[in-house]
Amino acid sequence: MTWTVEELQDVSLNLNPRAEEGKEDKKALNSQIFLINDTSMKKTITLEMQAQNIQEVVKTIKDIASRINLLSLNAAIEAARAGEDVRGFDIVAKEVRKLSNKVKHSIGEVRENVGLITEEITWMNKEQVRLNRLSNEGKWIYGMRKEKVERSCADSKERHGLRCYRLRG
User: Fold this and answer.
1) Mind listing the pLDDT tens digit for each residue in 19-31?
2) What pLDDT digit, counting tens, does each position of 77-110 carry?
3) Nearest residue to 115 via CA among 58, 61, 54, 57
4) Which distant-in-sequence residues (6+ apart) come within 8 Å of 148 by Cβ?
5) What is the C-alpha separation between 140 and 138, in angstroms, rounded?
6) Which residue of 87, 105, 146, 148 has the smallest Cβ count within 10 Å?
């Protein structure tokens, strides 16, 4: 069978745009996947930093607990000497109050960091759902494009006797 230029142009005009659409859809999907992965990595790094902040706050709380134990020992000693000098209790009480305020502040920091970590984890979960949805959409789009190309190929074979090759995927 001989082909006319018009027939070849018809086949080319029919198949090329569909192939280009498929390429563009794949490129857009890959771009979205890259963006989500990149952002997820940044969020993971942020989570790691917040976890380190929590560890530092925990160290502070441990230090405070240690100092409170020492102050309680001092208070016991002062209680034993209550008759001699009562002024020492005032110093101990002030130190205990300072440490109590520091503990309250540290607990606030822990709560804030835990809240931030929770927000980051929630965001990552939402992005994972979005990534799965995009992946499924990409598979569906690819399947639709593949069907179109196969229909065009079958049409070209029927109309022009062209041999078509099966698409992979």
Assistant:
1) 777 778 778 877 8
2) 777 777 666 667 767 777 877 887 888 888 888 8
3) 54
4) 18
5) 5
6) 87
Tokens encoding 45: 């790094």
* Residue 71 in tokens: 């102050």
> Which pair of structure tokens corresponds to residue 134?
């995009």
Tokens standing for residue 127: 């992005």
Q: Are the beta carbons of 61 and 106 closer than 8 angstroms?
A: yes
Q: Are 96 and 68 in contact (CB under 8 A)?
A: yes
Closest residue by Cα to residue 54 from 136, 126, 62, 125:
62
Q: Evaluate whether 79 touches 26 at the Cβ level (below 8 Å).
A: no
- DSSP per-residue letters across 44-96: HHHHHHHHHHHHHHHHHHHHHHHHHHHHHHHHHHHHHTTTT-SHHHHHHHHHH
